[in-house]
């Protein structure tokens, strides 16, 4: 198991910021993001910034930029490849009935849901 605090402590400041950025980008936008500890990684990054080993401004900028870019990449990947995932009428995970339910829900509650979900912690 990778210990995020040890990983950041052993790396140089630039390498640490690159690692933070890659993990947050991957978690926000790529399909492998579920497996990465992006939220958890921010805690030791903040602690290291408090100790002066990392720049707080650098951590905040890298986290914000990579989160936004990751979200955009994920959106465009879904926009580009999403319809291909629903070619089969009833796949194992993706079914047309699920898509219809999701459309109905997001038509009714979409704006509120997106804003609230962005700022609430997600259970893992």
Instruction: Kindly state the percentage of residues in helix.
Output: over 70%
**Principal-axis shape:** elongated
Biggest sheet statistics: none
How many beta-strand elements?
A: 0
End-to-end CA span: 16 Å
Any idea what the radius of gyration is?
A: 18 Å
Strand residues, percent? under 5%
Secondary-structure element string: HHHHH
Class from secondary-structure proportions: mainly alpha
Can you walk me through this structure?
- By secondary structure, the protein is mainly α.
- It folds into 2 domains: 1-82, no CATH class; 86-124, no CATH class.
- Helices cover 73% and strands 0% of the residues.
- It is built from 5 helices and no strands.
- It has helices at 4-10, 13-29, 38-50, 56-85, 96-119.
- It is elongated and about 55 Å long.
- The mean pLDDT is 80.
Question: Which helices and strands occur, and which strands form pairs?
Answer:
Elements: H1 4-10, H2 13-29, H3 38-50, H4 56-85, H5 96-119
Helix pairs in contact: 1-3, 2-3, 2-4
Provide tags for this entry:
124 residues; mainly alpha; 5 helices
Compact overview of the structure:
The chain is mainly α and 124 residues long. It folds into two domains: 1-82, no CATH class; 86-124, no CATH class.
């Amino acid at each position: 198991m990778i210990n995020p605090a040890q990983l950041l402590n052993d790396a140089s400041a630039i390498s640490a910021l690159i690692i933070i950025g890659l993990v947050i980008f991957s978690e926000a936008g790529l399909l492998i993001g579920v497996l990465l500890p992006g939220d958890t990684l921010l805690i030791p990054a903040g602690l290291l910034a408090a100790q002066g080993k990392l720049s707080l401004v650098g951590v905040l900028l890298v986290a914000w930029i990579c989160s936004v870019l990751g979200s955009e990449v994920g959106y465009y990947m879904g926009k580009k490849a999403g319809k291909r995932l629903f070619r089969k009428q009833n796949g194992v995970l993706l079914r047309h009935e699920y898509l219809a339910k999701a459309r109905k829900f997001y038509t009714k509650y979409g704006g509120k849901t997106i804003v609230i979900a962005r700022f609430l912690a997600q259970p893992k």
